[in-house]
Design a protein that fits this description.
By secondary structure, the protein is of the alpha/beta class. Helices cover 30% and strands 23% of the residues. The chain folds into two domains: 2-49 and 93-354 and 390-404, Glycosidases (TIM Barrel); 412-577, Sandwich (Jelly Rolls). It comes from Leeuwenhoekiella aequorea.
Length: 578
Amino acid sequence: MKITHLIFLTFFLFGSQVFGQGFLKAENSKIVNENGENVLLRGIGLGGYMLQEGYMLQVPFSGQQYVFKEHVEELVGKEKTEQFYAAWRKNHMQKRDVDSLKQWGFNSIRLPLHYNLFTLPVDEEPVAGKNTWLEEGFQLTDSLLKWCKANKMYLILDMHAAPGGQGHDVNISDRNPSKPSLWESEANQQKLIAVWQKLAERYKDETWIGAYDLLNEPNWTFENGKNENGIEDTENKPLRKLLEELTKAVREIDTNHIVIIEGNGWGNNYNGVLPPWDTNIVLSFHKYWNYNDTASIQQFLEYRNKYNIPVWLGESGENSNVWFRDAISLMEENNIGWCWWPLKKLGFNNPLEIKINKGYRDLLNYWAEKSEKPSSEEAFEALMQLAENAKIENCIVHYDVLDAIIRQPKNADAIPFKYNQLKNQLVIKAADYDLGTDGVAYHDTISANYHISTGKERQTWNLGRTYRNDGVDLFKINPDNEAVYVGDLEQHEWLHYTVNTNEAGAYSISLKISSNTNTGKASLLINDRNTTPINIENTADKWEWTAPVSVYLKAGKNTIKLLVEHSGFNLQSIKISN
């Protein structure tokens, strides 16, 4: 029921939008279609697909893809490593992924490219200065474009890993620090230009290619004594020069597509990069871990007004549902399109979670020096199972994340996470509180991470990092199964549930709790009235039911708010009986 309900809502909100088949273009401060109509891009980024970052795989070592690949090769050999990568890329994105994204309410996809799927590295070219072209990258892009066209979704090509790597944050571009970077090698820059020309040749007539994002998150200082990631640079001359050269190379072949530029310092430092040099250009910025207020995007609003250029939030995410909802609301209030990061990884705060199989967990433990080395056969089986887990049908779909991204910016109401129909008896998993933002479906002391704005340590919202991505702290009862409970409950926190009953009357409610103290106190608020206290006793950390209390429920829809009057207990389930 919850799935049907969510899909209906997203179709109601976004399904009626029709996009023209002409090219998107930058027209003054807006992105428009061929009819001159404003297009607000609602997108998702495919991190981990063509380019793996170590944190997405939860590895305990340096996070570049080539480092992970070396560790895999050490266990299974080169041939089986290539088999794993072929399976990973085949399974990670399929037509059903794109179909689902369309159904959920997205209208665009940002594809992070790794250049080495399109051409050889400079130091591996048989003939210096020549380019050997590889088919895999183009074929993967062709397939994704085909699925996007079938769903009338825009595909944005993003150069995420440039030849040599474009920054000191080595993971995001798979950079090997022992080799010349993009900025230290003219050959690397020429190869990047050649790749973009090849892409322009192949896709110049494709109207569902939304734009070319020329270089993801440069983070490199060009000025002595400044922060190495380029956040303090005042001129950025080499960056502007390369972006101009890339634009010129594309325009020699393709005069139709938008080109997207990103500043230094992970995309946001535009000192010396502006004014724009092309009439069909969009300024991208990235936003992570700061407040979602107008001040946080003020500089980009000013750039838009000053240079009459569209701006686009090209990458954001890796936070809580509260943060997602607030950030997207802020963007849409200011007519700024957005693209969320990522669609799937080994983690709970994205739409799709790739499950960690036992064999891969054993590999992680081995790499962390916590267990013995597995055999080659065991390691290969574990990796191939991980690749199988990357298929959407094998992923955990986090509907709470989708709800925060798609519905909540437009609709502030709490709606059921699962449909709860009470007949004789109903047991509700405590973690299945309603969908909605903090203050609507629940309240928790910490509901998002704002460490960039606060200057303090990163705030962890869901301390158990499982099941849902709200501020509510959820923990697994046993690491080997999916059962969860609500823990770390603090005074004044609460959870909201929706229950449907056939008949009005008196019902009994009890809680399945564990406690090792006599301080815990809770109460129930039924339909926003008649607070009923719940007696919480010391259970010596065992799971036990509290004594039932009597409440009145009306026929039809009822709301139950469970309030924490004093901390000191964990909550697994709520039982309602007639």
